[in-house]
């Protein structure tokens, strides 16, 4: 936040520190988990309200766009009133809307409620990291950052198992109802774990124009990324409209902030070297994380016909080891240069992706992904912790909330850009592979006839009609095309990990005890 906006009140002191930390980390967990659960359970939600594929695609978009829209506002009000009030109100809003969402009778009602839930959960992550840095002594920052990374990774990769269990044993309603006890628990922890902050300063920077143009511009660009693959990108007038409007509003925001007497955002936080590169690496890492969490369900669902619970058996191997890796990553962050931890993690992510790319076949199931996903679990946790901690060591105390907003924007845009890129690449490469394989499948070809006869002998023993043989052959062609497109995507993800690795290598080492100009502050907090 700009230093000229107002005299910031003193940082909040926690009445029960561990309870306050639990509350903000719980907010990070349920925010990411809800977004992923909504994606996995989208077909069930669409079916319950009678929505088609195209209109139903806006259900998850409404939730995530609201998160992007509220990010600047959350940081602004959090800097004035403190995270306690804002997070309690956000938790209550999120809890109430989550309880009501399953009772929606039509799509418009559901979209409005999802948008309101997104506004509530969108306050959680921007304020979480700032709270961790302002309430914990610097000697424990490494553990706070590692827990922050653990929350994001854990919630991202257990969602398939959770959604599958809900659908199989309860109902899709619990995708949202689970947030009621979690949200109430978060609000209670905040109430008893964080003391009330002093009244706001008299001079408050009411940069409504800056907040509006920034939030709406980012939300429009995010909606374009989220819907682009469905409507074929620039061949759609909707995408053109979203992109033009989003870039125009962001341009207006930048020009306003650079010329305003009391701007809302201090661009020195964003432009101070090497912060742009660190934020870019966070986006790249989120791209690799969300891409692989998309590719495994894409392959297992499309080739093997696995359901969400069965896909979760694979993704859970990324989530469970994080509980141990998070502690080890924190220890290494305290004892070594965080660049080494990040580079080690990025190397493991690249190796895991290439292992899968070189060995993947259409007969793979959950067990065959085990080794590569264990490597990726270690790599993702180390990489994210190292990159975030490297950025944290360069922050001034007054920049904590601004960095939380920038981290949220990089995280959401990186993840969405990765999802959009990989889903589009997978679709295009699958179409290309299907076409090339299909060129070798011709009526009357001896190899084709032999394959159909073999299918016929098998299905005859199961009393199936003879016409099923061509359908089985077509299914095999689709499976091979999907396998080839998955291989191509894993290679692309590995390339992104290598790019992030090169960027991290050239970044200068961060001050081991925080910014040099503010070492007395850090030393005082440590004492």
TrEMBL record:
<feature type="transmembrane region" description="Helical">
    <location>
        <begin position="86"/>
        <end position="104"/>
    </location>
</feature>
<feature type="transmembrane region" description="Helical">
    <location>
        <begin position="140"/>
        <end position="162"/>
    </location>
</feature>
<feature type="transmembrane region" description="Helical">
    <location>
        <begin position="373"/>
        <end position="393"/>
    </location>
</feature>
<dbReference type="InterPro" id="IPR020846">
    <property type="entry name" value="MFS_dom"/>
</dbReference>
<keyword id="KW-0812">Transmembrane</keyword>
<feature type="transmembrane region" description="Helical">
    <location>
        <begin position="237"/>
        <end position="256"/>
    </location>
</feature>
<dbReference type="Pfam" id="PF07690">
    <property type="entry name" value="MFS_1"/>
</dbReference>
<feature type="transmembrane region" description="Helical">
    <location>
        <begin position="340"/>
        <end position="361"/>
    </location>
</feature>
<feature type="transmembrane region" description="Helical">
    <location>
        <begin position="277"/>
        <end position="300"/>
    </location>
</feature>
<feature type="transmembrane region" description="Helical">
    <location>
        <begin position="110"/>
        <end position="133"/>
    </location>
</feature>
<keyword id="KW-0813">Transport</keyword>
<feature type="transmembrane region" description="Helical">
    <location>
        <begin position="174"/>
        <end position="194"/>
    </location>
</feature>
<dbReference type="InterPro" id="IPR011701">
    <property type="entry name" value="MFS"/>
</dbReference>
<dbReference type="GO" id="GO:0022857">
    <property type="term" value="F:transmembrane transporter activity"/>
</dbReference>
<protein>
    <submittedName>
        <fullName>MFS transporter</fullName>
    </submittedName>
</protein>
<feature type="transmembrane region" description="Helical">
    <location>
        <begin position="57"/>
        <end position="79"/>
    </location>
</feature>
<dbReference type="InterPro" id="IPR036259">
    <property type="entry name" value="MFS_trans_sf"/>
</dbReference>
<feature type="transmembrane region" description="Helical">
    <location>
        <begin position="487"/>
        <end position="508"/>
    </location>
</feature>
<feature type="domain" description="Major facilitator superfamily (MFS) profile">
    <location>
        <begin position="20"/>
        <end position="512"/>
    </location>
</feature>
<keyword id="KW-0472">Membrane</keyword>
<feature type="transmembrane region" description="Helical">
    <location>
        <begin position="18"/>
        <end position="37"/>
    </location>
</feature>
<keyword id="KW-1133">Transmembrane helix</keyword>
<feature type="transmembrane region" description="Helical">
    <location>
        <begin position="206"/>
        <end position="225"/>
    </location>
</feature>
<feature type="transmembrane region" description="Helical">
    <location>
        <begin position="315"/>
        <end position="333"/>
    </location>
</feature>
<dbReference type="GO" id="GO:0016020">
    <property type="term" value="C:membrane"/>
</dbReference>
